[in-house]
Write a structure and sequence with these properties.
With 475 residues, this protein is α/β, with parallel strands linked by helices. The chain has helices at residues 41-55, 73-83, 97-107, 127-136, 157-174, 190-196, 207-217, 239-259, 286-313, 318-341, 350-379, 384-410; strands at residues 28-34, 60-67, 87-92, 112-116, 141-145, 152-154, 185-189, 222-226, 228-230. The protein has a seven-stranded mixed beta sheet, with helices on both faces. It has a two-stranded parallel ribbon with strand order 6-9.
Length: 475
């Protein structure tokens, strides 16, 4: 059931105001996850630093997240950290891009967190458009898209086919609406990451996809930026293994969403001002709004039921056709009323609601079946049009009773009940932290660099949680 927060608890997203109050804390933290990238790391970091220094009007930080490199990447990272004040180096002893991002993002103090691949395949001119919606408070996450209409991409047919096929799989299996899950160019607001990251299990390449699917299902706003992208012919990504791991991840997430084992309803409200949660003049709310929604759903369900009945009646008798049509239409009716009429978000309680809906179906079945029995007893062999007329009248009576049962029994309004703090579906280490109020980011002057005196107080990797290890993966 939708629960409205207390006034003022979750303010609307606000644009970062312009002003002169400087702050030593970086507004943007760009993470570069690397594994054995001794050749590309230095030119990448220097080029990125020069670009940010020239074009980005806020303090920034570049964090090199070295995950278990065995070449000279750690030495290159430390040298860059010593030479450039805005660069930090973090070392993890275990592989995994997702693990590196989760560790660094969880420890960062920057309000906006981003990452990009070390090969800089994405044109850096897209970086400011990527993070601007997060700084302004317009969006919760932002991603670069190579599949947008205005994107300009240079890559081989093999990678093009794999990328488009993977996104078609996401759209078909997980109903994903974002266009490019694999582009290594993404950003997220810190308070969103603090709540969302504990729900993301993957520590490898599927980390991005899982994060985006959960964010989208939770109702967060994802901004897409068309990018110019040139394929790196020396990429070390193992395509076959990565594709197999991604498909396993799709199956795991799809199963979790189907069974309702993810508490996404806890993430549906905390992020910003949803206009659908406001009390507006001349907009039906409460009983009036529910009646409007129920009537619309009921009209569509009745049409759907009659079409099903007419179809089933061609192959079976009146009673079996009526029962089958009622069963199929009742499942659809309960799901539609749950979301559209009574505003229940998230998968929690979906199975129980459908079971209660079937009880309501039994009452409707008794009314309609009794009407058919009475008609057959009175008329012997009635015409099909007469059967439909009797069924419509019986359904109208059942509809009134169905609405009352839905309102007081299946979907009762529990907004006055104290919220529970128990999280049943998460392990102890993954309990989401309470969401921070969405407030404007700190005001800074253009061109102000991060305070070097904070050099030793910045990112230090947190201990990797047990959930970061896959079964059978060496620790």
């Amino acid at each position: 059931m939708r629960t409205d927060s207390s006034p003022g608890t979750l303010p609307a997203r606000e644009h970062l105001p312009a002003g002169d109050a400087g702050t030593p804390t970086p507004v943007l933290d760009v993470v570069i996850p690397v594994h054995n990238e001794e050749k590309d790391l230095q030119p990448c970091v220097r080029r990125l630093h020069e670009h940010l220094r020239r074009t980005f009007p806020y303090p920034f930080r570049i964090t090199i997240a070295d995950n278990a490199s065995t070449d000279t990447t750690p030495e290159v990272s430390r040298r860059l950290e010593a030479e450039i004040p805005e660069v930090r180096a973090v070392r993890l002893e275990q592989k995994g891009r997702g693990r590196a991002l989760r560790t660094v993002w969880s420890a960062s103090d920057a309000p906006v967190l981003a990452y990009m691949d070390v090969d800089l395949s994405t044109d850096l001119n897209a970086l400011l458009p990527l993070v601007a919606p997060l700084i302004s408070g317009h969006s919760d996450l932002a991603i670069g898209s190579r599949l947008a209409r205005s994107s300009r991409v240079v890559r081989g047919p093999k990678r093009e086919f794999i990328s488009r096929s993977y996104n078609l799989i996401l759209r078909g299996s997980l109903q994903a609406r974002f266009s490019d899950a694999q582009c290594g160019f993404k950003a997220i607001r810190r308070e969103v990451a603090q709540v969302l990251l504990p729900l993301v299990e993957d520590s490898g390449w599927f980390f991005d996809t899982e994060m985006l699917v959960l964010a989208e299902r939770a109702g967060l706003r994802i901004h897409e930026v068309p990018v110019d992208w040139v394929d790196d012919p020396d990429s070390t990504v193992r395509i076959v293994r990565t594709a197999a791991d991604d498909l396993k991840g799709v199956w795991r997430i799809g199963k979790a969403l189907a069974t309702g084992s993810l508490p996404l309803d806890r993430l549906a409200r905390p992020f910003g001002d949803d206009p659908r949660d406001r009390d507006l003049q001349d907009v039906p709310t409460g009983l009036a709004r529910q009646l409007v929604g129920f009537c619309v759903v009921g009209a569509l369900s009745t049409l759907f039921y009659l079409l099903l009945y007419s179809g089933f009646r061609q192959f079976t008798g009146a009673q079996p056709a009526n029962a089958l049509a009622l069963l199929v239409s009742a499942v659809a009716n309960t799901a539609a009323n749950r979301r559209l009429t009574f505003g229940v978000r998230g998968p929690g309680g979906a199975v129980r609601h459908q079971a209660q809906g079937l009880v309501v179906l039994a009452i409707g079945l008794a009314l309609t079946s009794g009407s058919l029995a009475a008609l057959n007893a009175a008329a012997g062999d009635p015409a099909h049009s007469t059967e439909l007329a009797v069924l419509i009248a019986a359904n109208l009576a059942a509809t009134v009773l169905r609405f009352l049962l839905f309102r007081v029994w299946v979907f009762p309004d529990r907004r006055e009940e104290p919220p529970t703090t128990a999280v049943r579906h998460l392990p102890a280490h993954a309990v989401p932290q309470p969401p921070l109020p969405r407030r404007p980011l700190p005001t800074v002057r253009a061109g102000v660099a991060a305070d070097p005196s904070r050099r030793d107080a910045t990112l230090h990797p947190q201990p990797v949680r047990p959930s970061d290890h896959r079964p059978g993966e060496p620790r």
